[in-house]
Amino acid sequence: MIPLELEALEPLGRLVARPWADSVTGMQVDSRRISEGDLFVAVGGGVDFVEHALARGAAAALVPHDAFAALAAIAGRVRDRSSARFVGITGSTGKTSTKDILNAICARQRRTIANEGNYNTEVGVPLTVCRVEPDTEIVITELAMRGPGQIAWLAGFVRPDIAVITNIGPAHLEFVGTVEDVARAKAELIDSLPAGGVAVVPREPLLEPYLGRPDIVVTRVDPDAPLPFATSYSSQHQLANTRFAVAVAAALRVPVPTDRLDVEFSKGREDERELPGGILLLNDCYNANPLSMRAALDQLVARAGDRRRVVVLGDMRELGRAGPAYHAEIGELLRELGVERVIGVGELARAYGGEWFATAEEAAARVPELLEPGDVVLVKGSLAVGLAVVVENLIA
Question: How many structural domains comprise the chain?
Fold first, then answer.
């Protein structure tokens, strides 16, 4: 991290510092991750681990008046001192994968920082910014949205030079209301751009009302544009994310590969496992909404060919009143695709048809009995459904 003097942290809460320390060179909220010279910020129950953090080498520990405000303020001070170009990525689906792909392009040629996994909330985004070093050239941040104002708040200290919106779809409707409201909330990222900033967006009519600023550059990504390189993956939705990454690389003036791009995706994405009996497991259980569910089913069809297709699909959460209708649409799609075996998990997943289980644990015990040699099985649902236990049981 770009060093910060302790005196800059004192207004944020109760500061406990080592006698020898006058600055900090990193920030953590988990005392187990402390390195020499770090600042430990006691978020939630973290106050109980102040002594542990200091014993592990923290230069100081902060018990903040307001945890989120303190993290944002610290990240903002780091941002003030950085000459790197900052990219902010949001969207109803594809945020994390687009970040992974863009990082794979940039890190080969520039000193690049990107958020771990899906560190994309009030805690994760400041932790990402506080990894920035004096020589960092590019910072890639992923920004989550659960309601109006959240993107604006995160962007207030990230201050992106380039804003990326991968798509607009029915996600978090429980908190925002309509898909139009989703577009409005995501567009807060565009509003945060400085004069001369770049907005990289899809050809999405719902975003057009927010793209009229004459002082920014708007790049609309062609969904059918050919890619100038081969990839280590083939799913159509990831190729769509790749087109966004290529557009951002152009804005950053980072050359893209001319041969092949290999990407290490975050956990729960593009995870394919060969199981005994020639069974292919498509593990996409990190999260789900109607857009990502359709994309996963398209990939299942493409990967399965003439093999038997099995799906273990959980509820898609946070859809509000529209939830039952969206689940019914996925059920209809499963019938249209002729998926041979359907297992639903969670109350709303009854609409998928097929066999149904109330909990992931019940499904985990049953699914192995349903599989046949050569099957291709997709596991996908909202994180809260807990379908990781199904994947773990299949692998075991």
Answer: 3
Question: Residue 25's closest CA among 45, 6, 1, 42?
Answer: 1
Both 55 and 181 in a single domain? no
CA dist 191 and 82 (Å) reads 21
Residues of the domain holding 121: 73-261
Residues of the chain below pLDDT 50:
none
Q: Which residue has the tokens 């690049």?
A: 112
- Per-residue pLDDT of 215-243, as tens digits, reads 999 999 999 999 999 999 989 999 999 99
The answer to whether residue 266 is domain-embedded is no
For residues 191 and 152, is the Cβ–Cβ distance under 8 A? yes
C-alpha dist (Å) from residue 336 to 111, 301, 328, 333, 360: 47, 12, 12, 5, 25
Clarify whether residues 40 and 86 are in a common domain: no
Rounded to whole angstroms, the Cα distance separating 377 from 396 reads 15
Bridge pairing between strands 60-64 and 13-17: antiparallel
Q: Does residue 218 share a domain with residue 79?
A: yes
Q: What's the predicted TM-score (pTM) here?
A: 0.93
